[in-house]
TrEMBL record:
Taxonomic lineage: Bacteria, Pseudomonadati, Pseudomonadota, Betaproteobacteria, Neisseriales
Full protein name: Dual-specificity RNA methyltransferase RlmN
Family: Belongs to the radical SAM superfamily. RlmN family.
Keywords assigned by UniProt, alphabetized: 4Fe-4S, Cytoplasm, Disulfide bond, Iron, Iron-sulfur, Metal-binding, Methyltransferase, rRNA processing, S-adenosyl-L-methionine, Transferase, tRNA processing
InterPro entries registered for this protein in UniProt: Aldolase_TIM, Methyltransferase_A, RlmN_N, RNA_MTrfase_RlmN, rRNA_lsu_MTrfase_RlmN/Cfr, rSAM, rSAM_sf
């Protein structure tokens, strides 16, 4: 069966042509799938009957089975999706007053192996397909609309490719997925509201600038190569000076005039005032790399046993932020959301890492959950 979630609009048009249908039919079909959340061709009433008949039995809109779904007291929703072979990926919806953000996964596991990331400790299983990346958005958007009773009004206004995986190491699946998010016949999100977060895959940052420039976040976590080599091992291949040059170049095409640097605060490792000063020297072009207009997002570390790392005390994070802010660099401290459901970044991956445990834990609950969602038409 062909999974129609694997196609961007030109891809769907090409598929319709193989069925002997006019390309414009693809736009109708695309809108039914992404804007109305339809999974049943029979429900697509204004679609030519001939096309509906051809699609039935040949194609499908393939949702991801839900292993678990938890709703936090603060409205954060976390899904754990089964992607087969004992692998699961997470997506998290974070509601705020003026936006609804979905954090999406791009891979089952991750090959980069950042020291502070429980997904990295899990190792790499496989890339997700375009359909599996988009199914996270399709499922979240349309199930949230039903739950919140918003009708056809959009719930998810922002997407961050910041879940499990390094999106730029799954480039060929990522780009069509981004194009569907941006397409006015799809989710219609502005480029400023779709963010790709990377650990620093320099050649792919350059390709993203050409192919589909969206907002860019970079997991920096250290101001100098010696430390970053240890925390973010891909730095040994693409050191900081190359990364900064790629960031500066990216800004020529980016929808925003700054790069967001993510910085996980690790007690006694990268969180001193001297580290903050070194970061300033780096982004202001005083450390041998080009100047990069930027914002910093300081992330409280979520400790997990194998890391051997500790979360920086709150006062240290605040003092670190002040050094950056006093120098005129916009700096935020990430709020922890969904604490009651372990939805903060990386926490779920620790459970996924032990797949036996995950399967055991969810095997009894999953059928109930999937049944409940089937009743709403989204499984
Ligand atoms: S932080 Fe991102 S790139 Fe690094 S190991 Fe975790 S998922 Fe991979």
């Amino acid at each position: 069966m062909i999974n129609l979630l694997d196609f961007d609009l030109p891809g769907l048009a090409a598929y319709c042509e193989t069925l002997g249908e006019k390309r414009f039919r693809a736009t109708q079909l695309f809108r039914w799938i992404h804007q109305k959340g339809a999974a049943d061709f029979a429900a697509m009433t204004d679609l030519a009957k001939s096309l509906r008949e051809k699609l039935a039995g040949k194609a499908e809109i393939r949702d991801l089975p839900v292993l678990s779904e938890h709703v936090s007291a603060d409205g954060t929703v976390k899904w754990l999706f089964d992607v087969g072979g004992g692998n699961a990926v997470e997506s998290v919806f974070i509601p705020e007053d003026d936006r609804g953000t979905l954090c999406v996964s791009s891979q089952a596991g991750c090959a980069v192996g950042c020291r502070f990331c429980s997904t990295g400790h899990q190792g790499f299983s496989r890339n997700l397909s375009t359909g599996e990346i988009l199914a996270q958005l399709w499922h979240a958007e349309h199930s949230l609309r039903q739950r919140l009773g918003t009708g056809s009004e959009r719930v998810i206004t922002n997407v961050v490719m910041m879940g499990m995986g390094e999106p730029l190491q799954n480039y060929s699946a990522l780009i069509p997925a981004l194009k569907v998010m941006l397409d006015d016949h799809g989710y219609g999100l502005s480029r400023r509201r779709v963010t790709v977060s990377t650990s620093g895959v320099v050649p792919m940052i350059e390709r993203l600038r050409e192919d589909c420039p969206v907002a860019l976040a970079v997991s920096l976590h250290a101001p100098v190569d010696a430390l970053r080599d240890d925390l973010v091992p891909i730095n040994r291949k693409y050191p900081i000076a190359e990364l900064m040059a790629a960031c500066q170049s990216y800004l020529h095409a980016a929808p925003r005039d700054f790069i967001t640097f993510e910085y996980c605060m690790l007690d006694g490792v990268n969180d001193t005032d001297a580290h903050a000063q070194a970061l300033l020297a780096l982004v202001q072009g005083r450390a041998g790399a080009p100047r990069v207009p930027c914002k910093f997002n300081l992330i409280p570390f979520n400790p997990f046993p194998q890391s051997g790392l500790k979360r920086s005390p709150r006062e240290r994070v605040t003092a670190f932020a002040k050094v950056l802010q006093d120098a005129g660099v916009v700096t935020t401290i990430r709020k922890t959301r969904g604490d009651d459901i372990d939805a903060a970044c990386g926490q779920l991956a620790g459970e996924v890492q032990d797949r036996t445990r995950v399967v055991e834990r969810f095997s009894q609950r999953a059928p109930l959950r999937i049944m409940a969602l089937r009743e709403t038409g989204h499984a």
